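Assemble and predict.
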Amino acid sequence: MKAVTMSGFGGPDVLEMGTAPNPHVGDTDLLVRVHATALNRADLLQRRGLYPPPPGASDILGLEMAGEVVQVGAQCEGWSVGDRVCALLPGGGYAEYAAVPAGMAIRLPNNLSYEQGAAIPEVFLTAYLNLFWLGGLTAGKNVLVHAGASGVGTAAIQLIRAAGATSYITAGSREKIERCLELGAKAGWYYKEGPFAPWVKEQTNNEGVDIVLDFVGAPYFEQNLEVLRTDGRLIVIGTMAGTKVANLDLGYLLRNRLQIIGTALRSRSVEDKIRLTQEFVAFAMPHIEKGTIAPVIDSVFDWAEASKAHAYMESNANIGKIVLRVS
Amino acid sequence: MKAVTMSGFGGPDVLEMGTAPNPHVGDTDLLVRVHATALNRADLLQRRGLYPPPPGASDILGLEMAGEVVQVGAQCEGWSVGDRVCALLPGGGYAEYAAVPAGMAIRLPNNLSYEQGAAIPEVFLTAYLNLFWLGGLTAGKNVLVHAGASGVGTAAIQLIRAAGATSYITAGSREKIERCLELGAKAGWYYKEGPFAPWVKEQTNNEGVDIVLDFVGAPYFEQNLEVLRTDGRLIVIGTMAGTKVANLDLGYLLRNRLQIIGTALRSRSVEDKIRLTQEFVAFAMPHIEKGTIAPVIDSVFDWAEASKAHAYMESNANIGKIVLRVS
């Protein structure tokens, strides 16, 4: 089959059109003709050789896709050839075909295109995992979402609103903040104007937030703890600006009963991913069918232009997902 | 009423017999004639002025007691004068009388003395909170318990065994390790012989543990993270040997999906404490009635010798609880 392959590890230019063996289809798997896939920051790391795929996963990039079922494993009840689906993948999305455990397939509603479907799995399941499983999100809670205009950020804002909770966001441009407010964030902070902690305290009448979703890492660590209220949880999804923290006060954690939670979706078991997908579908798909939650797409590239799409993501200009059309 | 009072903040000698106003008894409270109370490390800190009681709590030391109900609030169904109980307190245990919300009272089985009853609430509820609510303990999991021979340590070892899980402990003497093994620990490490991390890995076939219960703090921090397996949780209950950590790697937390959880029982809401007490009673009291879980008492002092009891706790020689008989 055709696939986006790599001539080695490095910058966006190592991506090229090539071929790869067709995926193996087990009895509990669906084989999908991929129509669209989407970029994730993990793809950039993997392309540079900094994030090896987990054992057993494809070497091909791509952690999600949307497409049409072309083969149904013997033990996949309820699925038919021709069904439109999207799903998380452990890798292998930048390809003509992908195999996925049937329990991880999400049925695409009629109102969504394949491009929109490909923009759902990673960001929405990551946001769901971190907000609900790890963050304990319930109605009435306050959440600070860093990188609010990112893929996960835009998904989180919408899930938080659907849960009856409140989100505050940080972002790197006025335009990004505006978009986040449209999606349901209560207020946004332009981080180039200074530290966010005083602003969060002012916004919350000095109460602070119950959950922080962070992708930034070390430079935000101290402020993140500072804005958490009692029993608050700092969910560390990424460490884009640094991993080494030189000043953790365990006594402060105790006194405020704080939790610091490191998290990753890709390395979780298939059983976890199936359970997560099912819970997410039950919670979010009614909203997605009504249009009250929608994947946020920044741009769509043809997969032959994958290197251009990667360079664009590296410029940090996108609001929402960057999608590849698999033609 | 009579009570152990303080002539000021400082060493054990500030403790003296004195008097204090009788506690207020609300409609949902029981008034208890205290027969025994017990020491906690928090008492030592409070005596030194380093741990002020939470707002509304008594200035008198004492976070737990056992005794006989002498007055029943109008809204306390199911309780009678003469009932034998033990309970957590927000303070005020070193006194002739204590008032406690009825939902926090634990009925003492006939096979337990008041001295034994006073040795239950703080250590067993702390262990239950941290193992089950925060640690997610289930059958088959591995737990590392530091200070295994401490009050919370000996309670944790027994709860872990009752849950069908496995405990490894560290302690500061051969005698303490022996006692922990008798209580159900699988193996123990004499910490004066060197770092515990290599030993834990060897004991667990390099798999590591699911939960670490730590009281030591900063000096153990790096090793604690090192011995946690994927999805492992470090529960920080105390920071006896230091609070400042200078080398936290957030990337390591992410890759291994680790959680660092700061915890405290005393500052939790009454609603939390009632729910915790009820869950603990349902899980543990059948074991306590059968004698398969038992409070571990190191020594009993008359309350007139409270300063001697405090000095003894400061020497770190005790195995299990130090109890005060309230005569």
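The CA atoms of residues 132 and 164 of chain B lie 13 Å apart.
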